[in-house]
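dumping the sequnces here before i forget
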Amino acid sequence: METQILNPNTDASAIPLAAKLLQNGGLVVIPTETVYGLAANALDPEAVRNIYIAKGRPGDNPLIVHISSFEEIYPLVKEVPEAAKRLAEKFWPGPLTVILPKSDLVPSVTSGGLDTVAIRMPSHPVAREVIRAAGVPLAAPSANISGFPSPTKVEYAADDMTGRVPLILDGGECAVGVESTVLTLAAGKPRILRPGGITPEMLREVLGEVEVDRAVLDPLGKNETAASPGMKYKHYSPETRVRIYRGSEKGYLRYFERHPAQGQFALCFEETAPLLRVPFVTFGRKDDCLTQTHRLFDALRELDEAGASLALAQCPPPRDVGLAVCNRLFRVAGFDFIDEAPIVGLTGQTGAGKSTVANVFASAGYRVVDTDKLAREIVETGSPVLRRLAEAFGEDILDGNGALIRARLAERAFADAEKTALLNSITHPEILRRTAEAAFSFSERNIPCLLDVPLLFQSGADAICDVTVAVTAPAETRKRRIMERDGISEEAAALRMGAQEPEAYYTARADIIIRNPDGADPGKAALAAAERIKTRYGGIA
Ligand code: TXA
Ligand code: MG
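..and the predicted 3d for all of it:
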């Protein structure tokens, strides 16, 4: 079959030709504000059957019926509830599809054998003109071969549909770039079956309660039936195998370093791209889910064009428009996730209440990495670090069994600043290496962890943390706490505190500050922080 591509903006014959083809039972690819659609007369069973054939689409996956004015809904449904009117007033024309019990006028092939019908009024001027000119409602699924990404540009629609339809209308790039939000009003409470540009929050403003179908973010079990048949198919799959990384940006960068692979690309946010050392395709800025939905399908095609065999994708939190991004991405990836938990660094002044905070994190499921313990382990008898210490500070820092005599090392290493620096240069890199290994190993097993490091910023250990937490308290309070805790004099306590950085040092560096003066409840603030950090995957700042 010859396929013509016409632009109605420059070719006056385009719309009348489309209308004639549609009236005669033919297929026409039309632009909409979401994605390009493969249209046919929704009331002509033979024409609709040809849609399924052209797309290679399973016959039980129903189609959306497109109308150009609100009145056209009445003959298609049993009745029009108040909720539908309010939604139409607010969101039509636009990227919202509403499901209602169908009338007998709608052929069963259009509704995939269901007794409901999905209806939407697109806002793209070409789509509306074609529907008006044809004088019939148009069934139109996305104009891709079934299982491939929905086309957001006329070239992509042409890639898939050339030779299968007589006419493709060029309406430029689709503004929304992701398919419409599908909302059912036919089964109890309003429920979102497919998220899109119209978010749950926007719908709740009009309807009050709105549910999100479980199939939106979770794979269906073997024997479960999908409320929306489209949800059960692996959709939008590009050639490139896509996996989803759920974790922080630092973790994402680290993943590529620790798991290099031939042909592996990053499918990432714009901000992340310059930090990567692997080839990448971007799909919008981190906080801009509207652009992400818009870019996603294009980005998948770009990965294929670049010959990527594997792509590791970042993903936004599943909220607002991010819900639509996650819904599509999860399906693209066939729910193949790499989940990595956050690494939190804890520091603070002596006596401020660091251990209280660490205990709260532990009770919230964090594993605490005790760096003091690691510091002791690296100087165990026979260790390479201990050997180097003996070479630097004298063989007599070891006893007859080769064990470290701590007091003797301390005496020599703290004699002057130069010696202290020498000690640190031998021990710190190894402590840091072990701390990082412990942290990465927890994170990779999706266990959140807390690094308890008194000199977090000074040692550079903050570089491996996704979030840093500092605990501070007024000097007087800390002094009294140290005296009580360690049973020491005011002078001794003051001496210990003298070596500590002031509060401003921590507030300038830490992501989260927990202030713990007398009468404060650090536990509450710590628990809130622990939970917030845990649930915020997809780019912890
Ligand atoms: O933005 C869009 O909606 C685009 C443009 C072309 O309008 N169309 C589109 O159609 O995405 P399609 O066929 O690719 O997706 C329709 C989705 C499918 O997931 C289908 O299962 C669901 O809507 N659907 C249609 N009728 C339904 C019904 N009666 N009950 C439940 N789900 C239905
Ligand atoms: Mg589709």
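The chain has three domains: 4-215, 241-339, 343-389+428-537.
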